[in-house]
Amino acid sequence: MNVSAALLVIGDEILSGRTKDKNIGYIAEYLTNSGIDLREVRVVPDIEEEIVAAINTLRARYTYLFTTGGIGPTHDDITADCVAKAFDVSIDVDPRAVEVMLERYKPEELNEARLRMARIPAGADLIENPISKAPGFMIGNVIVMAGVPNIMQAMLDHVAPRLRTGTRVLARSVDAAGLGEGIYAAGLGALAVEHQSVSIGSYPAFQSGGFRNQIVLRSRDEAALDLAEKAVIALIAGLSSDRTPL
Amino acid sequence: MNVSAALLVIGDEILSGRTKDKNIGYIAEYLTNSGIDLREVRVVPDIEEEIVAAINTLRARYTYLFTTGGIGPTHDDITADCVAKAFDVSIDVDPRAVEVMLERYKPEELNEARLRMARIPAGADLIENPISKAPGFMIGNVIVMAGVPNIMQAMLDHVAPRLRTGTRVLARSVDAAGLGEGIYAAGLGALAVEHQSVSIGSYPAFQSGGFRNQIVLRSRDEAALDLAEKAVIALIAGLSSDRTPL
Question: Is A171's CB within 8 Å of B113's CB?
């Protein structure tokens, strides 16, 4: 069974380049290791109609939609309202969220701005935030998390056990032994056709003083993966010992 | 005049988390500094229909669409073919691309796989690749670049002078002097309403041993930006000297 996901990164600061996103790579790796296929990522600005449209498109297409960013206390934090709008439900200060926030803030510190962080769309479940308490939430198949990386990571750990997961995709990496992609591309393409249940990719990796390409094989079927890996290793070994330039 | 752009990152390896994208932040900052507003980013897998659909949606919505990834010599490099399909034009080995590739490869080294990198959609202009020679290209408003960061960066430098640019968005950063967002959120929200031509955002930044929030103001109108910046500085100064917990 395949379980799919999309990630929606919300924030002008990512699109202006002022903040360099650290969440996409983390979430991608985390979901892959959990047996959830991340199939699409979008980054959109802090504009209501853009956020609402992206939420509705992506939640309809994939098993889960994760969002990061826009759930703080300032006026530019509009994610929770956009989610409520996308689901056409009401949103208000949630007593459960206030309760957890009172573990960190004194009652007189819970001003209107901070209470914005307790506004949760009707019908959502809270996602714990052990770091700064203001919670994330899950409504339908949409998981709404903070943008600050360590808070997002804690929220992901908290919500992950509630999610359906599929058979994990297994990966194998074969070092191309210093060969250029153009040397093994034809043979690799033939193997990709031969081993249809295995996804085969070639990734140039530049290192100091040269490059060292990696061939990555991915499949849910371990036996098929073993076969394809052996074939790729044999391909590379054959080409490495052949010193003609092709 | 505003000039807008989207970025389409193409590659299974980004979505699996195996490769951590380094291009989004670089391109975002580069375009912002060039007077081009990056308004949306998408990451899609190496699947033809996904790539073609994203190209056609994004090129219609923005002044420019930049793509990264999928223009190497292996079977999983399908970006050029997808662009040709999106534009409904033919694609074939381009003599101009072969000519530049012969600066690096001997004629007998230009095998079928490497010639894949010379396949350019009809009507496209080449984008120089000083590093490994295989070119990127621009067709209509779509700019197709490599995924390897240093090659992408060189291609961006090469294509940038050809692009229309708008008035640069200017940015100012005001340090929140150790105040939590909840302390200044109400005042900042009021200033955002008052200074409509300035986009005001608040960004928590966690540092070793605490946090140091930044308020970022962005506008094309320098006089308006000056006014708003002064107002934010005064807001923070007023709150910093007030030692009550609200």
Answer: no
Does B179 lie in the same domain as B109? no
Q: What is the pLDDT of residues B93-138, one digit of tens each?
A: 999 999 999 999 999 999 999 999 999 999 999 999 999 999 999 9
Q: Is residue B246 part of a domain?
A: no
Tell me which of A115, A150, A203, A211 to substitute to probe the interface with B (most B C-beta atoms closer than 10 Å): A203
| Residue A114: per-residue pLDDT | 94
Whether A126 and A149 map to the same domain: the answer is yes
**Nearest of B180, B182, B238 to residue B213 by alpha carbon:** B180
- pLDDT at position B246 over 60: no
Do A51 and A120 belong to one domain?
A: yes
Rounded to the nearest angstrom, the minimum Cα separation between B195 and chain A is 13
Instruction: In whole angstroms, give the CA distance from residue A215 to residue A246.
Output: 20
Same domain, A83 and A174: no
Chain B residues with CB inside 8 Å of A244's CB?
none
Residue A37 with chain B: CB contacts under 8 Å: 15
The ipTM (two decimal places) reads 0.92
Query: Among residues 122-141 of chain B, which lie with CB inside 8 Å of chain A?
Result: none
Q: B108 and B32, same structural domain? A: yes
| Cβ-count burial A174-195 (b if 16+ within 10 Å, e if not) | bebeebbbbbbbbbbbebbeeb
Question: What distance in Å separates residue A76's CA from the closest CA in chain B?
Answer: 6
**Chain A residues near residue B111 by CB distance under 8 angstroms:** 182, 185-186, 246
Helix-strand-coil split of chain B, %, nearest 5: 40, 25, 35
Domain range for B206 is 170-241
Task: Note whether A14 contacts B: Cβ–Cβ < 8 A.
Answer: yes
Count of structural domains, chain A: 2
B188 and B135 assigned to the same domain: no
CATH of the domain at B99: 3.40.980.10
Contact between A246 and B108 using a beta-carbon 8 Å cutoff: yes
Span B18-52, pLDDT tens digits: 999 999 999 999 999 999 999 999 999 999 999 99
Of B146, B162, B178, at which residue does a domain stop? B162
Average predicted confidence (pLDDT) for chain A: 93
pLDDT at B245: 45
- B53 touching A (Cβ < 8 Å): no
For residue B134, give every residue at least 6 positions away whose Cβ sits within 8 Å of its Cβ, in sequence order, or none. Answer: B71, B72, B73, B97, B101, B114, B117, B118, B146
Nearest CB among B9, B29, B114 relative to A17 is that of B29
Task: Give the residue from B162, B192, B226 where a domain finishes.
Answer: B162
CB A231 within 8 A of CB A200: no
Write down how long chain A is.
246
The answer to whether residues A37 and A151 belong to one domain is yes
Considering the domain architecture, whether residues A29 and A116 belong to the same structural domain is answered as: yes
